[in-house]
Amino acid sequence: MATIADDWGLFRSEWCLGVEPGYDQAYALRALQALHALWPEVLEPLVASGGRGVGAVGYPIHLGAALADASECPGFWSVLRRARDGERGALSELQFAAKFRRAGFTPAFDIEIGGKRLDLAVDVDGVVTYIEVVTPEKSDLDKDALARVERARDSFGPREGEYRRVELLTFPTDEVVAAVRDALERTELGSSGEIPAIGRWRRERAANTGARGEFSWPSSEYRAERLISSEYHHFNAPVPFILVANVSATLLSPDGWSAAFERAFQPTRNRKLGATVAYQDFVGPPDFMWGSAMSIRVNPYATYPISPRLVLALEAMHRPPFAPAT
Questions:
Q1: For range 256-280, the mean pLDDT
Q2: Hey, what domains does the chain have and what are their CATH numbers?
Q3: Can you tell me the distance from the alpha carbon of 233 to that of 241, in angstroms, rounded to the nearest whole number?
Q4: Stretch 263-292: mean pLDDT, rounded?
Q5: Which has the minimum average pLDDT: 84-93, 135-144, 180-189?
Q6: Is the peptide bond before 254 cis (omega within 30 degrees of 0)?
């Protein structure tokens, strides 16, 4: 793999099967070299399995680029050890630190403030902002809701003399939509080619009596409130704080999380929190490049507001992969 990481022609022909990857050559080689040096165990299964193609190499490049950028930040090595030991939260810290590096800042890991240790701290124009990074998992309610969608499949079969009305509310991801799509395609309702999109979809066959099926998704409001409450003890110093949530494992989109976070901002509550960031890593066609969907909410009632320059940097982080940090 070291040879492949050093030889772009070999990497493109043997690992990408001759297809030009969407990543810049310097960006991809730097990422692969960093991954080989810092976390070679990630490459070993790929090499052993013989997996090839731009889809197979996308995540190693994505991870390697994050390691290459985050390695320039103070405190990197202890966080890398935690990530290599399987701690998903540590990986989120590395990824978000890398986003800061690509935006031109150099955050530090594991910084103490007010008797608490925060995951990251970044100096912007002489003001240090402290950041706590959390990685919520798919909740039991999310899992239960998916199971209910699966169980509902059999209830959508057409019956003689009646029609079906289906009401779908707030489906957050393609995983949910796919499950409902499969149920509808097996019924008369799905025969017209109308496939429910994320959001609300409703269709009635006729104005006569019939059966009704309804899917409603558990509210994430309680999760956002609980997340802020569980992390709020970190925010006990007279400085700006940001709560970052890597929501990639959950069924709610970054915008959905941010809307719930925003409702927690009140004139008399949660004022120590300057902003929240919800992000989700994803890979998309046609070139299978990894990127991040990100949603930022600034607390208008914050006692210690976030720097406008830092807010602009956060808003720019949702773009496709950056060139290597300089």
A1: 93
A2: 2-70 (no CATH), 85-138+220-316 (3.40.1350.120), 140-215 (no CATH)
A3: 11
A4: 85
A5: 180-189
A6: no
